[in-house]
Recover the amino acids of this structure.
């Protein structure tokens, strides 16, 4: 990695370094002067993504561009997470974070410039076919136009048990077909990274942003709760104690608070809309790095990136700590695999136990071109990424520790103590800052250990629901995941047959997350998380399996006298498959749209409550908070007990809501007398699909409640009802 | 400022163990073969610190949970 005394960087790297330097000056100035500038939020996000990572990663002078890009993104985000966490713990002004990181960036950039940077041309590649490039970019623009049109006409209120796929029109079908065609052609031609990246960006926009852009707000209730946590840190300058265990890992929320300030936003709500796109775009370099190491081929690595997106129905990329933790995790795994597959690893001449001992004790060589200093630097950067993960998310570090231990036992890592360092840091943080979690969630932490059957039940069986169509669609989701796992296993088998090195390491990377099933149910979400952590490794393996299956066909085409016609047929077939896969992604990812979305009406209603409620008020609702979670954390009591108790006395699993006489339910609520009642169509849709609840019964009950003298109807929109308990003066 | 469940000495021990492990790894990287005496001292120190930290954690955890282990 180290080459000479003068840093040699590519033009792209020089551009990124210059942009980072400009942002290091511009963002603190814009934030302190509170200058209203169009696109300031975009600049603030760019600041988080490239400052100070670009400058610091260039210090390593790595010759592999995707390693530098992966490092730059992950290190910038990690530095922000750690700095913001430190500031929150010290209860110091959060404004210090961008100033400190900008200063670090400028200092390192200045040092690099004093050393005399030599700007070199990037990899010499054959000139791209400009006609194809501009033609494909035009096609992608047309696809995005169709998607934009769809966002203005789609009727998401009509979404039911089939989810989004039943509501999308021919526009999304055609847009998906166009993107699939461009991708298919891109893979059979000489690789053009511009076209591939543009096609990937278009794919992600169409697949991930349709609902959010159509609604004009971010979906996913938990994302709004995170906005509330960020709002709390912005208002109080510290994490809350005794309110929610998630404050024990404040990294993401502290970063969100800093970002809200630098972006000039009143709260983090606007960040919810584009979060899935941003998170997935940032993940691309790490995914490519993993794919390049696993497959040994740039084409298959890109195919792996596309496959990852096609199977990414898990929806864990919304505005949440796990999305950033997953990015850090994938980056660390990418760097580990790059070092492993690029190094010379000693093999044992012994057999049996002797060979096993030699394997455990061996130390892989360094990546060609790297010296002790750069290897140490990479190790320390890896620890910084792990530390940022530890202060931001509770589950991902556990998987990382298992992965690092696995690498050590396989003799596949030079830093043999890394698993212990990360493990100790994890325990230290758990002891230091996660008090709420230890004390409040002890039964959760320990109660699920070894209860695999119960975890499977809560993670799979309980999530299927009772509505027959919804059940079928849930089975489609499981089938889609099973296919992903099966094709990944086939890819691994192909590598074993080809006697590829370190297949055991790859198998371990897939298996490690699934050991979580034995430790935690994670509120019934553990299977989703397992797939999230295994997916970056499965994707290139699926690419290998598909390549092995299609290779004889490709060979036949290349030898055939009808090569041109067969190639057209192959592209048509590949486009069709990709288009079908995209629509399957729309079906699986968008299945819960009827209850996971948040509409502007919900937002308005919730804002009204958050503005008018007095400290200590209770707000009764039925399940997901939605926009109601976006503020006043700790001030008002969001309570879903009263409504459930009064309408569903048997509790979950008993008779559904609505099985009690309506008069009794109204009398019960009058007795409970919550200060506010907030019921949305999405809450009722969820209950209908999961428990068979009759929505009309609930709406009628609320109207009956409003007819009493006790409650005042504040808002009665088509998809949300808000009632307020009258005070004595009223 | 959050409460430290294993106390500041416990936390210091854990962080010291992590720092020594990192030091050992960095020494291995810097000097291909670390002198046996240095390596042994570091490894023994790490083991002692980790075991002490683990013992403190278990005892404190037991106290907080009202006798989970005893």
């Amino acid at each position: 990695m180290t080459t000479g005394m003068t840093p040699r960087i590519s033009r792209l790297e020089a551009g990124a370094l210059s942009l980072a330097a400009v942002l290091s000056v511009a963002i603190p100035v814009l934030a302190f002067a509170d200058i209203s500038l169009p696109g300031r939020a975009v600049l603030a996000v760019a600041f988080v993504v490239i400052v100070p990572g670009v400058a610091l990663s260039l210090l390593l002078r790595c010759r592999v561009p995707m390693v530098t890009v992966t490092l730059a993104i992950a290190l910038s985000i990690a530095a922000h997470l750690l700095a913001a966490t430190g500031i929150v713990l010290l209860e110091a002004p959060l404004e210090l974070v961008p100033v400190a990181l900008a200063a670090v960036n400028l200092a390192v950039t200045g040092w690099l410039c004093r050393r005399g940077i030599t700007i070199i041309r990037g990899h010499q590649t054959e000139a791209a076919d400009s006609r194809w490039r501009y033609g494909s970019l035009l096609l992608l623009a047309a696809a995005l136009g169709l998607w934009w049109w769809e966002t203005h006409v789609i009727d998401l209120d009509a979404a039911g048990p089939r989810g989004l796929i039943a509501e999308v029109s021919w526009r999304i079908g055609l847009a998906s077909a166009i993107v699939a065609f461009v991708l298919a052609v891109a893979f059979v031609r000489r690789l053009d990274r511009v076209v591939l990246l543009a096609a990937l960006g278009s794919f992600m926009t169409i697949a991930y942003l349709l609902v959010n852009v159509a609604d004009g707000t971010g979906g996913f209730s938990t994302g709004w709760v995170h906005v509330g946590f960020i709002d709390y840190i912005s208002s109080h300058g510290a994490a809350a104690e005794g309110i929610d265990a998630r404050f024990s890992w404040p990294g993401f929320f502290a970063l969100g608070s800093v970002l809200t300030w630098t972006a000039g936003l009143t709260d983090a709500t606007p960040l919810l809309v584009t979060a899935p796109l941003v998170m997935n775009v940032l993940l691309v370099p790490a995914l490519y790095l993993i794919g390049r190491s696993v497959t040994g081929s740039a084409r298959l690595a890109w195919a792996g990136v596309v496959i990852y997106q096609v199977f990414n129905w898990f929806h864990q990329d919304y505005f949440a700590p796990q999305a950033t933790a997953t990015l850090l995790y994938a980056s660390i795994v990418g760097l580990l695999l790059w070092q492993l597959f690029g190094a010379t690893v000693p093999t044992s001449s012994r057999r049996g136990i002797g060979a096993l001992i030699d394997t455990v004790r061996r130390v892989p060589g360094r990546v060609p071109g790297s010296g002790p200093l750069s290897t140490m630097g990479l190790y320390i950067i890896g620890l910084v990424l792990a530390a940022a993960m530890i202060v931001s998310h509770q589950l991902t570090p556990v998987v990382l520790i298992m992965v690092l231990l696995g690498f050590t036992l396989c003799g596949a890592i030079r830093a043999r103590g890394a698993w212990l360092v990360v493990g100790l840091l994890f325990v230290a943080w758990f002891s230091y800052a996660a008090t709420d979690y230890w004390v409040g969630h002890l039964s959760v932490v320990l109660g699920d250990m070894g209860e695999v059957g119960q975890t499977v039940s809560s993670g799979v069986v309980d999530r299927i629901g009772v509505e027959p169509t919804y059940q079928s669609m849930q089975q489609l989701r499981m089938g889609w995941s099973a296919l992903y796992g099966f094709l990944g296993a086939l890819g691994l088998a192909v590598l074993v047959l080809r006697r590829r090195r370190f297949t055991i390491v790859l198998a371990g990377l897939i298996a490690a997350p699934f050991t979580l099933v034995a430790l935690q149910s994670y509120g019934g979400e553990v299977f989703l998380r397992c797939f999230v952590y295994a997916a970056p490794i499965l994707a290139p393996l699926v690419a290998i399996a598909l390549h092995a299956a299609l290779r004889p066909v490709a060979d036949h085409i290349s030898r055939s006298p009808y090569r041109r016609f067969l190639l057209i047929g192959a592209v048509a077939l590949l486009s069709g498959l990709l288009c079908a896969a995209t629509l399957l992604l729309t079906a699986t990812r968008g299945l819960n749209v009827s209850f996971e979305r948040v509409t502007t009406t919900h937002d308005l209603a919730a804002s009204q409550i958050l503005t008018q409620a007095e400290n200590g008020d209770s707000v009764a609702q039925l399940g997901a908070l939605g926009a109601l979670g976006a503020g006043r954390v700790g001030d008002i009591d969001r309570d879903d007990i009263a409504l459930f108790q009064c309408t569903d006395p048997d509790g979950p699993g008993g008779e559904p809501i609505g099985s009690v006489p309506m008069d009794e339910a109204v009398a019960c609520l009058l007795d409970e007398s919550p200060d506010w009642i907030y019921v949305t169509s999405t809450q009722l849709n969820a209950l209908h699909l999961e428990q068979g609840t009759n929505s009309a019964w609930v709406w009628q009950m609320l109207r009956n409640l409003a007819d009493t003298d006790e409650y005042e109807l504040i808002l009665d929109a088509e998809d949300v009802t808000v009632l307020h308990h009258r005070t004595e003066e009223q | 400022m959050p409460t430290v469940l294993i106390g500041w000495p416990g936390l210091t021990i854990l962080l010291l163990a992590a720092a020594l492990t990192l030091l050992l790894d960095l020494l291995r990287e810097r000097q291909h073969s670390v002198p046996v005496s240095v390596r042994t001292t570091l490894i023994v120190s790490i083991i002692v610190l980790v075991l002490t930290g683990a013992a403190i954690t278990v005892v404190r955890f037991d106290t907080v949970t009202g006798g989970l282990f005893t």
About this structure: The mean pLDDT of chain B is 82. Helices of chain B lie at 7-30, 36-64. The radius of gyration of chain B is 15 Å.
